[in-house]
C-alpha cells in the first residue's frame, strides 16, 4: 500500500493531478476541500460549521478536520492506497495523521510537493473562478488570505516530512501531462 501526500499551495494543481493519479494507480483520493464542499452543499452539521471558514479562506479547526479525515480513511478499508490532497495542512494534522496511520500498521510513503510561483497561482485561481462556482476563488482578498494562511500554517508541514526523508519537490509548471509524468515517476520510485 502506498499513501501519498500531494502538497502545494492553492491553485498548484493538486485536484487536477489527483484525478490522473487515481486513474493510473487506483488510489482513493481524499480531498478535505472537496469533502467540506460536499457537506456545505448537503447542508450537513459539518457543512454548516465549515462554511464560514471556507468562505473566508481560513482553515477549519484541526479537531474537526482530523476526525473527518479519519472517518474518510476508515470508510475505505479496501483501498490500495490514498492520495491525501489538502491534508495535512498544519503540523498538528501531520502528527495526527502519522499516529492514526501507525495505529493501522500504515504510514505515508512520500510527500510530493507541487512548486508553483505565487504570481502563477493567482492567475490560475482567477481563471478557475470563472467556472468553479467557488466563493473562495471569486475574491482577490480571499485568494490572498488562502495564500497567506498557506505560507504561515501549511508550508511548515513540508519540514515535517523533510525530517522523515519523505519530501520531494516537483516542478508544477508546464503542461498537465508533463507534470503528471513527473508525479508518476516520483511515485513509481517510492517503496
Ligand atoms: P485550495 O484550492 O485552496 O487548495 P481546497 O479545496 O483544498 O483549496 O480547500 C478549500 C478550503 O477548505 C480551505 O481554504 C479551508 O478553508 C478548508 N480546508 C481544506 N482542507 C483543510 C484542512 N486540512 N484543514 C483545515 N481546513 C481545510
Describe this structure in words.
- The structure is a single chain.
- 57% of the residues lie in helices and 12% in strands.
- The protein has 191 residues and is an alpha/beta fold.
- The chain has a single domain, classed as P-loop containing nucleotide triphosphate hydrolases (Rossmann fold, 3-Layer(aba) Sandwich), CATH 3.40.50.300.
- Strands 2-3-1-4-5 form a 5-stranded parallel sheet, sandwiched between helices.
- α1 packs across α9 (176-188).
- The longest helix has 15 residues, at 118-132.
- It is globular.
- The mean pLDDT is 96.
- Bound molecules: adenosine-5'-diphosphate.
- Residues 10, 32-33, 36, 53-54, 57-60, 65, 86-87, 89, 93, 136, 146 line the site of adenosine-5'-diphosphate (ADP).
- The site of adenosine-5'-diphosphate has 17 residues, from α2 and α3.
Bound molecules: adenosine-5'-diphosphate
Give the N-terminus to C-terminus distance in angstroms.
Answer: 9 Å
- Helix tally equals 9
The CATH topology turns out to be Rossmann fold
Range of helix content: 55-70%
Strand-residue proportion: 5-15%
**So what's the overall shape?**
globular
Uncertain spans: none
Sequence of strands across the biggest β-sheet: 2-3-1-4-5
| Radius of gyration from CA coordinates | 16 Å
Question: Structural class, judged by helices and strands?
Answer: alpha/beta
Order of helices and strands: EHEHHHEHEHHHEH
Tally the structural domains: 1
Summarize the topology:
Elements: E1 4-7, H1 14-25, E2 28-31, H2 32-41, H3 45-56, H4 62-74, E3 82-85, H5 91-102, E4 110-115, H6 118-132, H7 140-154, H8 157-162, E5 167-171, H9 176-188
Parallel strand pairs: 1-3, 1-4, 2-3, 4-5
Helix pairs in contact: 1-9, 2-3, 4-5, 6-7
This protein binds adenosine-5'-diphosphate (ADP).
Amino acid at each position: 500500500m502506498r499513501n501519498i501526500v500531494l502538497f502545494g499551495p492553492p491553485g498548484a494543481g493538486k485536484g487536477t493531478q489527483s484525478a490522473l493519479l487515481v486513474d493510473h494507480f487506483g488510489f482513493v483520493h481524499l480531498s478535505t476541500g472537496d469533502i467540506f464542499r460536499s457537506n456545505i452543499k448537503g447542508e450537513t452539521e459539518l457543512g454548516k460549521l465549515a462554511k464560514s471558514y471556507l468562505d473566508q479562506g481560513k482553515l477549519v479547526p484541526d479537531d474537526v478536520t482530523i476526525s473527518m479525515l479519519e472517518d474518510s480513511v476508515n470508510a475505505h478499508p479496501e483501498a490500495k492506497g490514498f492520495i491525501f490532497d489538502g491534508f495535512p495542512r498544519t503540523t498538528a494534522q501531520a502528527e495526527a495523521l502519522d499516529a492514526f496511520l501507525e495505529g493501522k500498521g500504515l504510514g505515508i510513503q512520500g510527500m510530493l510537493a507541487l512548486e508553483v510561483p505565487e504570481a502563477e497561482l493567482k492567475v490560475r485561481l482567477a481563471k478557475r473562478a470563472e467556472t468553479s462556482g467557488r466563493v473562495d476563488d471569486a475574491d482577490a482578498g480571499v485568494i490572498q488570505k488562502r495564500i497567506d494562511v498557506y505560507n504561515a500554517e501549511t508550508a511548515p508541514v513540508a519540514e515535517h516530512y523533510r525530517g522523515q526523508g519523505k519530501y520531494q519537490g516537483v516542478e508544477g509548471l508546464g503542461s498537465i501531462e508533463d507534470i503528471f509524468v513527473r508525479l508518476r515517476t516520483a511515485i513509481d520510485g517510492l517503496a
